[in-house]
Design brief:
The protein is built from 20 helices and 10 strands. The chain is mainly α and about 525 residues long. Keywords: Cell membrane, Membrane, Transferase, Transmembrane, Transmembrane helix.
């Protein structure tokens, strides 16, 4: 756009113009600013047609915008990108061939690495533990260390599949399953390359996955993230199917329950969300009965209560620095029962007990904010259910990370699905969390696997890196909560994500779209 675009509505009476309202859009401004105006001060007309209006803005109108502009930062980032990548390369990356070439190269690399380790009879990270569990048919009495029932029961299925040919190729088959799910997720996100507007979002997802490295390829979390992404691409269009997929993911790793909560809060047909969850749960109970494991079905919830404050958790940061500085007898130690590095110090035991109710309270408060934004947004110009689902999912999942006493590095994988799908709808509305998550991924990679040993031995530099990562998570949580507040207070400030029938919108006199890729 080259100039200011405005649309005005006027209220008139015979012989006079009583008042007007103006909607304006500035260049490079991703939202509409609404300015109710006072009665016209002067009016010039020719042959009964208005040719010039002069009017003033009411005294009560704020001179500040609701949105903090990030245009300057992203313009600088775009210039850096342009210096780094020729325009021909950038255009190629936005094609289906470019996307699948990059995607394939990254996944082939991890498959080759997994294959080399498997040929030596090795695994990597948590897959060592998964392999042991599968080798004893998940009999916890035959296991020293963490019990297989720290995970929901459906997590045992991919472990059993990876062990189908024994311990040798376990890691390779595990990575192959994640690669297959990532392929399905990117295919669904881009309609197998046909939706070119979603290709940058798929590239972002691929780069984020690469930066997370083995945290996305050698943990159960790497299986659930693409499943949640697939569910979010379906979203509010089919609440039953979306809930069914998310419920399967929840019975594999708990965190997708946050997305289920967002879905339940946003959609009209909430009964379908519940029915899908009940159906999956019934199937899970049947599976537990067939394994004679019904008493262990909820162990994954019960065993979390005894955990202390994990080293990487956001709320552990004060005790992390107390340990680094040698204050108050704070210290790090390995909890062998759950294979977790924890920090102990004055007040840490009390904080550990408080974290569970704090997490529940934070989740309920965010869900309440989503509900408020939905119903308030209807009165203030239109509630976009797709946008609310995505912003609500990000806020709730980030709450699950920030207010969690565990805080394992692979938890960062949870944050990517909502952002990837959001980018495919409205790139500009989601570029801030996308950029923050790239920073989170880089800092997490430095923490684990690169310098985790130094961190666990009170290295101040790595403690600083972890602290910066945790601060970014807090900023991400605040940003997502603020977006929900904006969607309730003034939905017009955020570009619409969905114009489907499920989106409740008020009549609009004029609409202007400005897409940026």
């Amino acid at each position: 756009m080259s100039g200011r675009v405005c649309v005005w509505w006027a209220k008139s009476a015979p012989g006079e113009l009583q008042g007007a309202a103006l909607i304006c859009k500035q260049p490079r401004t991703p939202f509409l600013a609404f300015y109710p105006l006072q009665p016209v001060n002067s009016l010039e007309s020719t042959a009964g047609h208005v040719t010039r209006l002069t009017f003033s803005r009411p005294a009560h109108a704020s001179t500040k915008d609701w949105i903090i502009s990030t245009d300057t930062f992203f313009a600088a980032l775009a210039r850096f990108r342009d210096r780094l990548l020729p325009s021909r390369t950038q255009n190629w990356l936005k094609t289906s061939r470019g996307l699948w070439t990059v995607f394939g190269a990254i996944h082939v690399l991890f498959l080759v690495l997994a294959g080399l380790l498997s040929l030596r009879g090795e695994a990597f990270s948590d897959t060592f533990i998964y392999r042991i569990w599968a080798s004893v048919d998940f009999n916890e009495s035959l296991v020293t260390g963490p019990s297989p029932w720290v995970y929901p029961i459906l997590a045992l299925i991919p472990m059993a599949i990876a062990y189908i040919f024994g311990s040798g190729p376990f890691l390779f088959i595990w990575v192959l399953m994640i690669a297959a799910l990532n392929t399905l997720a990117v295919g669904k996100l881009t309609r197998w390359g046909k939706n070119t507007e979603a290709i940058p979002a798929a590239l972002w997802w691929t780069v984020f996955t690469a930066l997370m490295a083995w945290l996305g390829f050698a943990r159960v979390d790497g299986l659930t993230a693409p499943v949640v992404l697939i569910a979010l691409t379906i979203g509010v269009a089919n609440p039953f199917l979306t809930s069914f997929i998310l419920s399967i993911a929840t019975w594999t790793k708990v965190w997708p329950a946050a997305v289920v909560l967002a879905l339940f809060t946003v959609v009209k047909k909430r009964v379908q969300v519940v029915l899908a969850g009940v159906l999956v749960t019934a199937l899970v109970v049947g599976m537990a009965l067939s394994m004679n494991a019904l008493p262990k079905l909820l162990n994954f919830l019960l065993e979390q209560g005894d955990r202390g404050m994990q080293l990487e958790a956001t709320f552990t940061t004060p005790w992390l620095w107390m340990s680094v500085l040698g204050l108050g007898d704070a210290h790090m130690y390995m909890n062998q029962d759950i294979n977790s590095m924890q920090v102990d110090g004055p007040g840490s035991a009390t904080m550990s007990v408080l974290m569970q109710p704090l997490l529940i309270a934070a989740a309920l408060l965010v869900a309440g904010l989503v509900f408020w934004a939905l119903h308030t947004g209807k009165r203030n110009g239109g509630a976009d259910r797709t946008a609310l689902l995505l912003f609500g999912s990000l806020a709730l999942v980030t709450a699950f990370v920030v207010f969690n006493k565990v805080g394992s590095p692979q938890f960062m994988v949870w944050l990517a699905p909502a952002v990837a799908v959001g980018l495919s709808y409205q790139w500009k509305a989601w570029r801030v969390p996308a950029t923050m998550l790239i920073g989170v991924a880089v800092l997490t990679f430095l923490v684990y696997p690169l310098f985790y040993d130094a961190l666990s031995h009170n290295n101040p530099l790595m403690a600083g890196v972890l602290t910066l990562r945790n601060l970014l998570l807090i900023v991400l949580f605040v940003w997502s909560v603020r977006q929900l507040f904006l969607m309730g207070r003034n939905p017009g400030l955020i570009p619409r994500h969905d114009l489907a029938p499920d989106a409740v919108s008020a009549p609009v006199a004029a609409r202007s779209t400005n897409k940026e890729h």
